[in-house]
Amino acid sequence: MRSPNAPAATSAPAAPDGGPGRRDAGATKAAILRAARHLLARHAHGDITLKAVAERAGVSPPLIMKYFGNKEALFAQVMSFDEDAAALLDAPVADLGRHMVRHVLVSQSERGADPLLRIVFAPFHGSQGDTLRTNFRTQVSDRLALRLDGPDAGLRAELAVSMLLGLGVMYGIARGGELRATPLDDIVTRYAPAVQACLTP
Fold first, then answer.
1. What is the pTM of this model?
2. Can you list the domains of the chain with their CATH numbers?
């Protein structure tokens, strides 16, 4: 019997090029990682099966094994923030607040994903939650702090990241009506200066 917290089977999304047989390796791996991230943000790690990931990604469980080896190897990549942090921090420090706010909003509104939000669910993942926390600290907060000049760089980096997490929670989880009805450019204009103030005080 399936655990009541386990992800239910969902209809497999169509492959972007017309079918799993024609999907290239890079697109397949990306789809699997997106599916696993989606499930990790909604279910405990122990309740997620390769079958659920495969169904959401539109592939077969053996194909996941082919590309990643096993569930633990797959989720080792899912729990890494390295690639997301690279995109999030891809701007000069003088423009970084605006870039990061826009990146979070565009990720949420256009891709249904968030580069940081899975850290919010760390308490639900047991020992895997410790891995998420360590990765988040070293790959996101500490990485940002290294780019900042002046005193208290670590504190300022964590404050800036906290603002991004709050924005992501309100937009993607609480689904604030006023926030989601406001044009993204307007939100960026209002919110980015507060984030930037932590980066360049």
1. 0.78
2. 25-78 (1.10.10.60), 81-199 (1.10.357.10)
